[in-house]
Amino acid sequence: MNKTSTTIDLNASPGDLNTDSDSDSDADQESVAAGLPLPGVTLRKARADIGISLEEIADKTGLSRRYLKALEEDDYDRLPGKVYIIGYLRRYSALVNVNSDEVLVAFEQSYREHKGVKSGGHGIELVREKFPRDKVLLVLGAGVALILIVVLMAFS
User: Fold this and answer.
1) Domain for residue 151, yes or no?
2) Cα 44 from chain centroid?
3) Rounded distance, CA 23 to CA 7, Å?
4) What is the pLDDT of residue 112?
5) Does 147 map to a domain?
6) 74: containing domain
7) Which domain CATH number covers 52?
8) How many domains does the chain contain in total?
9) What is the mean pLDDT of residues 94-111?
10) Which pLDDT belongs to residue 154?
11) pTM value surpassing 0.70
């Protein structure tokens, strides 16, 4: 079996992506001109084009119908973590003969917007609230001091 490695450039413009299909429909051109189509839209359309039901996809992928519906609706809040979503998208893409690299690039863009993520120059950086280390250190220090006072009082 021949394995290849693919690098996904998250900063690539839609025109930089290679497509395997020769379809030049107006709808496809409009969605590319406006940006990448949402991954759920792409998968739902591919599923409809080959005439397969959501139940059949569920049977063949082993994913619940609820998760598949959430994928098609790009509703990431109803799905487990990002790593799982990526795996689900790969499985679904393979089943409906869609280039998973394109779906994943669209997913990264959509997920960033959905979860409040900034794109850095070399990857993705989550926007998080700063961990209140000062408060933790203060509480920890007070706890240690209290224990020392109790121990000193016990031995005096």
Assistant:
1) no
2) 17
3) 24
4) 82
5) no
6) 14-128
7) 1.10.260.40
8) 1
9) 90
10) 92
11) no
Nearest-CA neighbor of 99 among 46, 55, 28? 46
Could you give the 3-state DSSP secondary structure of residue 129? coil
Q: Angle of helix 39-50 relative to helix 82-95, nearest 10 degrees? A: 30
pLDDT digits (tens, 9 = 90+) for 14-51: 444 443 433 333 333 333 334 678 999 999 999 999 99
CB-based burial, 94-133: b 16+ in 10 Å, e otherwise: ebbebbbbbbbbbbbbbbbeeeebeeeeeeeeeeeeeeee
Cα distances (Å, whole numbers) of residue 20 to 84, 98, 117, 143: 25, 8, 30, 63
Residue 93 located in a structural domain: yes
DSSP state, 62? -
**Is the residue at 117 inside a domain?**
yes
Pure H helices in 1-156: 26-33, 39-50, 54-61, 65-72, 82-95, 100-115, 133-154
- What token pair was written down for 120? 């850095």
